[in-house]
Amino acid sequence: MSLSPQALIHTDNIVANWRTIGALVPGARPGAVVKANAYGHGVGPVARALHEAGCRTFFVAYVEEGAELREIIGANATIMAFNGAEPEDAELVRASRVTPVLNALPALKDWLGLSDTPDYAVHIDTGMNRLGVRLEDLAALKRLMADKAPVHIMSHLVDSDDRSRAINTQQFERFTEAASNFPEALKSFANTGGCFMGAAYGFDVVRPGIGLYGGGPPTPEGVTLKPGMTLEAPILTVQAVQPGETVGYGATYQVETPRTLATVALGYGDGFPRSASNKGVASLDGIQCPIVGRVSMDLITIDVTQAQDLAMPGAFAQFIGAEVLLEEQAARAGTVGYELVTGLGHRVRRIYD
Questions:
Q1: How far apart are CA 31 and CA 96, in angstroms?
Q2: Catalytic one among 35, 39, 187, 213?
Q3: 97-140 pLDDT, tens per residue?
Q4: Out of 39, 148, 249, 268, which one is annotated catalytic?
Q5: Is 142 a catalytic residue?
Q6: What value does the mean pLDDT take over residues 20-29?
Q7: In the chain, where do the E strands start and end?
Q8: At what angle do helices 63-73 and 43-53 cross, to 10 degrees?
Q9: Any residues with CB less than 8 A from the CB of 239 and at least 6 apart, and which?
Q10: CA dist., res. 251 & res. 294, Å (int)
Q11: Rg of the Cα trace of the chain?
Q12: Tens-digit pLDDT profile for residues 128-171
């Protein structure tokens, strides 16, 4: 028996989520965002499972991630790198057939100055003010691209978590108008939340990310996503504590009634956030067990008073999964599901089902 935390990665669930989300935007090609090691789930097994299921468009952040992914899935797929590329990356781009997404006019000038310019995509900023060519620069963009047009045009929603916000409609209108200048290029606009906004947001290709792994904004009525991972940690010790005693560093939790506590092998050294101290939960066979005291580097203490028959050394407590939903745990810790899953470190063993 291992005494380290483990993440059971459910590749079948990830594929099922990809199909579920894709069905919400009929007419669009369902891609998959697998940057940051497939959001901490392991890019190799995840990308292979999605590719075998029929996914043919993948998105990463860096050209280097794209080159790694090409080795995993082979030639029969499009791989796009959101953060673009420099001219010195051209050899790697050609060798790995990664399509860089260029995000500003200077980057475009440099890329188009290459001899035998590799294919590229362009990000148009419709309101994020983060990456992308600004709308007022569209005329200059078209002049630059006169000799070699982009194969793909994309933009990114500011707040797809809240589908009621007017800015989503404004961005949709801006992107529709801007993208009409590039009739031959594929169009991509919808992330996970965008896929929940209806078929109009789909354009040619959709880019679900966190939704593939069971997280993201609330789903439309009747749509359920499955957990991409089950994060578990083994109980090391179980002890009875009395009123007045405190738990953990800084004595931030004081026991008011007799309680049974268990200490598990998981902590911020494994990527579980310290901000979950006295706020997060674990689960033993569906019984919620609050985190008490501080999350320390290697250990978390949970209150197992309501699950005493289950709490014993060697038993595994769940911290993310079907019993502790990703976004609910993230909210308790004051963060988002993205950070919880991408932050899990190498000490957490990945086990693939």
A1: 18
A2: 35
A3: 999 999 999 999 999 999 899 999 999 999 999 999 999 999 99
A4: 249
A5: no
A6: 96
A7: 6-9, 29-30, 32-33, 57-60, 78-81, 98-102, 121-125, 133-134, 152-154, 186-188, 205-206, 229-241, 246-247, 253-254, 259-264, 281-284, 287-290, 300-303, 316-320, 349-352
A8: 60
A9: 260, 261, 262, 263
A10: 8
A11: 23
A12: 999 999 999 999 999 998 889 999 999 999 999 998 899 999 99
Q: Tell me, what amino acid is at 345?
A: G
Place of tokens 């992914």: 69
Q: Strands (DSSP E) along 242-304, which ranges?
A: 246-247, 253-254, 259-264, 281-284, 287-290, 300-303
- Does residue 229 carry a pLDDT above 90? yes
* Beta strands at 32-33 and 57-60: parallel, antiparallel or unpaired: parallel
Return phi, psi of residue 80, to 5°.
-120, 140
Predicted confidence (pLDDT) per residue in 248-293, tens digit: 999 999 999 999 999 999 999 999 999 999 999 999 999 999 999 9
Say how many CA atoms lie within 13 Å of 335 toward its Cβ: 20
Name the amino acid, one letter, at 211.
G
CA nearest neighbour of 11 among 345, 351, 339, 348: 351
